[in-house]
Each structure stands twice: as structure tokens, then as C-alpha cells.
Amino acid sequence: MPADRKLLAIRSERTFNAVVVGAVALGFVTLVGVGLLGAIVMQENLEFTSQVAHTYQVEGAISDFRILDERTETARRGYLLSHDESFDQSVRETATQLSKAILRIQQLTADNPAQQANLARLRPLVFTQQQAISVSMAFARDGHSDTSQFTRDAGVGASRAIRQLTDQMIKDEERRLAVRDQRRVATIEQLFRIAIAAAGLAVFLAIGSVWVILRYTRQLSVSRAELAELNAGLEDQVATRTADLEHAKADLVAGNQRLEALLREVNHRVANSLQLVSAFVQMQASAVDGAARPALKDTQRRIEAIIQVHRRLYSAEDVESVDMNDYLKALMRELEDTLSSAASPRTLSLVADPVRLATDKAVSVGVIVNELITNACKYAYRRGQAGEVRVRLTDEGQGLTLTVEDDGVGMTAGGVVHGTGLGGRLIKAMATSLDSEVKYDRAHAGVRATLRLPTA
Fold first, then answer.
1. What domains can you pick out in the chain, each with its CATH number?
2. Which residues are 405's β-sheet partners?
3. Which residues pair with 317 in a beta bridge?
4. What is the rounded CA–CA span in Å between residue 453 and residue 448?
5. pLDDT, tens digit (0-9, with 9 covering 90-100), for 423-444
6. ∠ CA(9), CA(12), CA(17), 5° rounding?
7. Which of 84, 140, 88 lies closest to 288, judged by CA?
8. Pairing state between β 356-358 and 400-406
9. Mean pLDDT throughout 347-372?
10. Is the pTM of this model over 0.70?
11. Rounded to whole angstroms, how far apart are CA atoms 89 and 70?
12. 166-183: pLDDT as tens digits
């Protein structure tokens, strides 16, 4: 019997060893397979990421073409209205740039037959538009100053068709972007699941290994020394892994700092570019007379309102939101410098709670404040009369309330604020982008405009 029990124990030990070795081998093979699968999914993720970036390039190229095309029409109108040769030079330069823009779109969409077909439709439209522009400017150059036929010009139809076609091209790219980004996100989710599976498998193998080691240590005294060596090795691995994680954490912090610095640089460049545009508008305003000059001055003030946002983002620690108190204070200081004079002094006052808004919301609020203050300074008080415009921004917990008011002549007999035109449309558009609207208090002696918007 003792011999039989010993033989049975040996057979049981051999069976156990075979099962353990097989399980460990299977586990490591599975782990290698998971690693290979992760590498494949990572490669797919890199490809989809590259495709997403390429789609953004195509959208940017189409948008650049749209800007150039609209700039051509603007220059044509400027020449028909003013006969300024600088507009004629601008038309010629922009025509050359349009050809380059179309060539860039063609190169970027070489692998997209649908966009190539759209380009084939776009080229004759651009040619028709350029022909119409040349004809209308030639008539104007020969002394025909009547521009009433402009809306029936063949170029108008071509321009509309160009806008519709480029809108469709952008929508096509947006659909491609959605599909590609969805695939990219799907690969990230797959990588996450693979990582979880690999971690679970690694834990399973570790537990199994420890269990085997503990089993043998109870049977063999030699295994205790081997276990001690194994523990030492594991501690070295943990220390190495900890050091690696610390380095990775430091790299991540450094990367975030680089990204923030890059974002500040982008805001700085945007502010500089807008400042250059503002300077161009100011130069143009100085070169024209009549109604065009105040209109250009208004445009310059609108540009300055946006510049202020990017200046704040460039100099602030938080590059994703704007301190509205500082922003509105700087904006109103510039408006007071430009809208107030010794003959017609205007005083602007601000009371604002500590509020921070995201960049896009801050821009919309700044444009609304700019338009309301400009309107009040122009129309609320008679020439030679001193006047005050008050701005208040309050945080009511559930949302923000912006109020701009004056003590001037108030609304017209029909209940319309004086001077509402392009400025009024801008106010309405900016309020809509904030999911709100500007309301006017008819009971107020002057004009009181109120805007309510959620903080979320």
C-alpha cells in the first residue's frame, strides 16, 4: 500500500506538472497573440489618424478657395463702386491664386473620384465667373458707371453655383471625416479592450506562477531559495516599471506644457494677423470718403473686439477660457478712445462679476457689446451732448445676464433702435450662436438691451 500511494502521488505530480506547463505555455502563446493583435490595431489607428488629418487638409483647401473666390467678388464690387485701380490689381492677383487653390484641391483629392468630378464641374464655373468679372470691369473702365445689372450678370449665377458646389464638397469631406474618425475611435476602443485582456492574462499568469511556486516551497526546501531570488527579481522589475512610469509622467507633463505653449503661440499669431487686417481696414478707411469710411471704422472695431480675446488667451495661464471682466474692460477702453471726443464726450462704465467664458462664447459676447456700445455712442445722444453708456455682466448662478443701457433718445416711434442695420444683424447672429436673443426694455427712458445666456 505505501508503494501504491507513492506511485499514485508521483503520477498525480506528473499530471499536475504537465497541466501547469501546458497552461503556462498556452498563456504565453495567448499573450504573444494579444500583443500581435494590439500591434495590428495600433497600425490601423495610425492609418485612420492620418486619413483624418488628410481630410482636414482637404477641407482647409476648399475653405481657402472659397475665401479667395469671395475676395474676387468683393474686389470686383469695390472697383465698380470706386474705380480704384487697387481693386483691379487685387482681382488679377486673386485670379492667379484661385488657379493654385484648385490645383491644390486636385492634388489632395487625387484618390477621391467624387471630388475629382466636383472639380471638373468647378473649373468651368470659375472660368465663367472670371469672364463676367472681366466684362463688367471693362465696361466700368470705359466709363459705364451703372452697376444695376450686376445681379443679372452671368458671374452672379456662376458665383452662386460655386458656393453651392463648394458647400457640397465640404459636406462630402465632413461625411468622410465622420466615418474615418469613427473608425479611429473604434481602434482606440479595441486597443483599450486588448490592453485590459492582456492585463487580465498577465494577472492570471502571475497568480498561477505564484501558486506553483508556493506549492513547491511547501514540498522542497530548495524552492525557498529560488522563490527568494524570484521575489528579488520581481522587486527589480517593479522598481524599473515605477521608474518608467515616473519618466512617462514627466514626459506627459512636458508634452502638455508644449501643447499649451503652442496654443498660446497660435493665439498670438491669430492676434497679430487680425491686427494686420485691422491696420489694412484703417488704411482703407483713410483712403475713402462718404459712407464707406464710418462703415470701415465699424468693421475695424469689430475686428479689435476679436483681437482682444486672442490677446487674453496668449497672456493668460488658462488658454481655453477668457476672464470677461478684464476682456470687457479692455474692449470698452478702446471703444471710449475711438468713439468719444471733446465735442461729443462719451463715458463708458462697466460692472462685471468674476466670470470666465469659453473662447467662442467670449467672442460672441464681445461682438454684441461692441455693436450695442457703438450704436449708443452714435445715436443715443445729440452731437455736442455728453452721454454715458453702462454695461453690466452678472452671474445669477443659473446663467449670465448682460445689460447695455444709455439715457439717450431711446427707440424710434416704431419701436426700432436707432441705427440698426448690419450691426443689428450681427447682434442677432451672435445671440443665436449663444442660444439666446437680445431683448429691449421699452419702459426704459433710453435704450436698455439685455442678453441672458447659460454658463454651461
1. 11-144+151-219 (1.20.120.1730), 320-456 (3.30.565.10)
2. 390, 448
3. none
4. 17
5. 888 889 989 988 999 999 888 8
6. 125
7. 84
8. unpaired
9. 90
10. no
11. 15
12. 889 889 888 888 888 888
